[in-house]
């Protein structure tokens, strides 16, 4: 099946064009078969709470993945993530409360009972075809049936300081609202609370720290709960989970996503033809080796004014001029940037001639 028939309806054409583009530009190895598993954290969720639907065992060689509402309806896309361009695109049933992360997890804020139902995670391979479907049922419970549940206000929250960190830098995952009667706190790498993923724990009663199996020597847990990560690498990108245990045996679990940025390398600008006739069309493609970058376009060394004769792909990596005019002649460049750095491509000149 082609992307056009597989992915989405007319209302969501951006995904389509995007995936076609992605499959044209990439040259990935054939995917390996892996059994993707889905998990909801917490497993039981009450309306008004947040939930994380995570996907484990993602195969290596894939170009994109997407979450859908329901089991079979391909028109009900929530969000799609392209690994090649490291962008997340929203689908027709995105409610504004969902965030899709690069590891496949879907974070749904402030769930309602209407969110109850099947969620399907689909992996798209290099031919733009669906390689696997995995489904999970999410049951959102009514808050009316939950007696004496404490409000969310008292739950611990985590903030990343700074918000964006570059490779070899340091970041503090600062914890607020720790329970006053805290007994032990645990930090885990990833979204799962598993002994083998523990970074470290701190026991208030004895004022002792214990390192876990995934402690790399670069992490420090403070008595106020905060976790300091030093000399980070891009491999540190991902979720971190804090679990607190109070003296009354109440457990709270909180997640944070950390993005480690690398300085960008110079992008490469390619054009379909460098001499075009008036009224024809031309496509520029900006290729970047980096993940997590944004792209902007320059024309004659100034920001490009995108007119109605031009179209940018959803991730901005392609610029198409449909009806070329004389005034489009000149030097084009693209700039790749992330929160810590930016690099501009070498210029590409476009010549415009009459018929
Ligand atoms: C995935 O589900 C869709 C919709 O039900 C179906 O068309 C497709 O063949 C399935 N693909 C795989 C690999 O199971
Ligand atoms: C959560 O959703 C409800 C309606 O479903 C809304 O009244 C409330 O303000 C929302 N809360 C937050 C924190 O967004
Ligand atoms: C926790 O302690 C660390 C190290 O002393 C400090 O940098 C951080 O600001 C503290 N966090 C809070 C929330 O006070
Ligand atoms: C950071 O890590 C790199 C490689 O892992 C190492 O070469 C370097 O010495 C470390 N720097 C510090 C300040 O620990």
From TrEMBL:
Coiled-coil region: none
Keyword Glycoprotein: yes
Organism (species): Rattus norvegicus
Family stated for the protein in its record: Belongs to the immunoglobulin superfamily. CEA family.
CDD domains found in the cross-reference section: IgI_hCEACAM_2_4_6_like (cd05740), IgV_CEACAM_D1 (cd05774)
Keywords assigned: Glycoprotein, Immunoglobulin domain, Signal
Tagged with keyword Glycoprotein: yes
Residue span(s) of domain Ig-like: 263-351
Signal peptide: 1-34
Protein name, UniProt field: Carcinoembryonic antigen-related cell adhesion molecule 3-like
Pfam family membership, one: Ig_3
Gene label: Psg19
